[in-house]
Amino acid sequence: MSEKPLVLVTGGTGFLAIWVIVHLYKKDYRVRTTVRSLSRADGIKAQLREAGIEESKISSLEVYEADLLKDGGWTEAMKGVMFVQHVASPFPSSLPKHENDLIIPARDGTLRVLRAARDAKSVHRVVVTSSFAAIAYGHDNEYPELYKYTEKEWSNLESKDTSAYPKSKTLAEQAAWNFIEKEGGSLELTVINPVGIFGPVLGKDVGTSARAVTELLEGSVPGIPQLSFQVVDVRDCADLHLRAMKNPNAKGERFIGVGEGTIWMADIAKLLRKNLGDKAQKVPKFVFPNSFVRILSLFMPVVRLIVKELGKEKLASNAKAKEILGWQWQYNNEEAIMALANSLIKLGAVKI
Ligand SMILES: NC(=O)c1ccc[n+]([C@@H]2O[C@H](COP(=O)([O-])OP(=O)(O)OC[C@H]3O[C@@H](n4cnc5c(N)ncnc54)[C@H](OP(=O)(O)O)[C@@H]3O)[C@@H](O)[C@H]2O)c1
């Protein structure tokens, strides 16, 4: 039997990237990943072990050093690769000092990855992880209530409501499409636009995705803001990335990754209490009035990150991913949220 193709996954230390690697190994692909520091390689391997990947595959993982902010390392990382999953991008849990702290690595990093992929000649397609944040921000009152955003929409960069993270994802994705059109040669591009990613973590070093559930479990805030999330489980999102890599009809398309749909933060708190008993004793019950959170945001920069989203419900359609890729989410909101909570508790990543 011939060897399966080599796939490069950027940012193997990340929450989504590690699950993309797990899914690639489950389909017997060969995998290479990039990290900012090779000292992270053992941590990635430990996470693959936690996911039940065989030792022979774990020891075959190739780990290369490359930073989105630097040219070095990308040419070497692309050698012999057939597909690239470009997942790495800064996803911070607070507003950066300057928006360029996010925009430059996101946009220039994506261009570095695409240029190296084109020049390698062996690469057939790059799948870029963009975000629903590149679709649904800065459109106040432009669409009717309960409108389901589709892949045709783009976030409005002119709006003052579009903060640094949605800007970084929008500019990075636009730069990617522009590159492919003007300089990409025969390189193919497909983009995934996930909503909020939940589901199990595989290591203690958890990122922004786990933050809402972590803060509820630890009771680090005395009340719950009126925030809603569109949810996709990380395992379903990884599956979507693999389908986008292989399906010939995915060329030149973007796909929203959304599972069951909306959940309010207060309902996440209820799910935690219902399923976790004593372990959910710190989960707050009180729901903050929006006016209170707005006042709080004047004094607490981190609260400014959410203040524009209070009381809003943004819906997303997964019809295109279903129709073109035959994708169907497997984990509903409760399963995705409880898998995240249970994994955080099991790995000792929360103080409950
Ligand atoms: N999680 C969500 O809810 C969500 C929703 C929609 C889209 N996304 C997108 O999905 C992707 C993965 O997100 P995630 O949740 O897995 O976030 P994450 O766990 O924070 O992972 C981010 C990854 O990007 C890497 N990275 C950041 N800056 C870098 C740089 N300058 N050079 C090289 N690597 C760099 C990080 O490396 P270090 O470990 O070295 O920091 C890490 O591997 C991102 O593109 C994000 O925008 C996430």
Keywords:
352 residues; alpha/beta; Rossmann fold; 7-stranded parallel sheet; 12 strands; binds NADP nicotinamide-adenine-dinucleotide phosphate; transmembrane helix; NAD(P)_dehydrat-like; oxidoreductase activity, acting on the CH-OH group of donors, NAD or NADP as acceptor
Rg from alpha-carbon coordinates: 20 Å
Name the assembly state. single chain
What characteristic shape results from the CA principal axes? globular
Termini separation comes to: 50 Å
Portion in helices? 40-55%
Q: Helix/strand/pairing class, anyone?
A: alpha/beta
- Series of H and E elements: EHEHHEHEHEEHEEHEHEEHHHEHH
**Order of strands across the biggest sheet?**
3-2-1-4-5-7-10
CATH structural fold name: Rossmann fold
Task: Characterise the protein shown here.
With 352 residues, the chain is an alpha/beta fold. The chain has a single domain, classed as Rossmann fold, CATH 3.40.50.720. The protein is built from 13 helices and 12 strands. The strands form 3 sheets. It has a 7-stranded parallel sheet with strand order 3-2-1-4-5-7-10, sandwiched between helices. Strands 8-9-11 form a 3-stranded mixed sheet. A two-stranded parallel sheet has the order 6-12. Strand 8 (196-198), helix 7 and strand 9 form a beta-alpha-beta unit. The longest helix is centred in the N-terminal third of the chain and has 21 residues, at 100-120. The model has no long low-confidence stretch (mean pLDDT 95). It binds NADP nicotinamide-adenine-dinucleotide phosphate. NADP nicotinamide-adenine-dinucleotide phosphate binds at residues 11, 13-17, 36, 67-69, 87-91, 105, 129, 131, 169, 194, 196-197, 207-209.
